[in-house]
Design goal:
Layout lengths: L8 E4 L5 H12 L3 E6 L2 H8 L7 E5 L6 H14 L5 E4 L14 H29 L2 E6 L12 H21 L4 E8 L5 H14 L3 H10 L9 H11 L11 E4 L9
Parallel strand pairs: 1-2, 1-4, 2-3, 4-5, 5-6, 6-7
Helix pairs in contact: 1-8, 3-4, 4-5, 6-7
Length: 261
């Protein structure tokens, strides 16, 4: 199937590994010219070198500094030779913790990373998308926006802020050919999955490997998700066939979340 996006231009945040890298790879395979951003140029360059399809330009995308989003946007347009057609919003996961233990300074710091930077870059890209009557915006979500995850107060709280901004935006720009969607991984095997498991395993007094094995057995699919499965959905939503899919939370969860919505 030709997804009809060859020659489109994309910025992929948090793309040096995991679901960000998988999404960059999937889009590049469809002929999309990609700016692959990471928290450091070294990491971005190493990731970009692994993608052999199309044009892939490594850049620094430091979501901890909202002003860097302005720099990234301008540099990406110059490097790709025109306005941005596709934006993939992503960032590293915040620290785990309970609501009663929430530190206000950490909340403000993560708010800049998970909300302000994402909204800043989205706001920069949208006017050109509206002008050309075509655009695709994806934001990484979490099952926590549907059913809060225990001991994940920062993720639950701040991802919800971004999700509802994206839903509001989706209804405003669909008439201009711009779609806005959330794609939420749950139990997709990434470094984040492994690090979270290691923390929980330590508290349980078992090895991280044993914790992951037990976790996997309890999943409806009896296996973890693959990052390529996540990237494939992103590519479809960004395609010519995704033009009537907007304002939704698309879950890559192997049926884990019990709710249908």
């Amino acid at each position: 199937m030709d997804l009809g996006i060859k020659g489109k231009r994309a910025i992929i945040l948090g793309a040096s590994k995991g679901i960000g890298f998988a999404s960059a790879s999937a889009l590049a395979a469809e002929g999309v010219d990609v700016v692959l951003s990471g928290s450091s140029m070294e990491r971005a360059e190493a990731a970009a070198a692994k993608i052999t399809d199309g044009k892939v330009v490594p850049m620094v995308g430091d979501v901890s500094n909202p002003d860097n989003m302005n720099t990234l946007y301008e540099d990406a347009k110059k490097a790709l030779g025109g306005p941005i057609d596709i934006l993939f919003n992503n960032h590293g996961g915040p620290a785990v913790g309970a609501a009663l233990d929430l530190d206000e300074a950490e909340l403000i710091s993560e708010f800049n990373k998970m909300v302000v930077s994402i909204i800043r870059l989205t706001g920069l890209c949208v006017p050109d998308m509206i002008a050309q009557k075509w655009g695709r915006i994806i934001a990484v979500g979490s099952s926590g926006v549907v059913q809060p995850i225990p001991n994940m107060v920062l993720s639950n709280t701040l991802r919800a802020s971004t999700v509802y901004y994206m839903k509001t935006l989706a209804n405003e720009v669909i008439k201009d050919g711009v779609t806005v969607n959330i794609v939420s991984p749950t139990q997709v095997l990434t470094d984040r999955t492994r690090s979270s498991a290691a923390i929980k395993a330590e508290k349980a007094g078992i090895s991280a490997e044993e914790f992951l094995a037990n976790q996997e057995k309890g999943l409806p699919a009896k296996r973890f998700g693959d990052t390529k499965e996540f990237g494939g959905l992103v590519a479809f939503l960004c395609s010519q066939y995704g033009g009537y899919c907007s304002g939704s939370n698309w879950r890559v969860d192997g049926g884990m979340v019990k709710s249908i919505v």
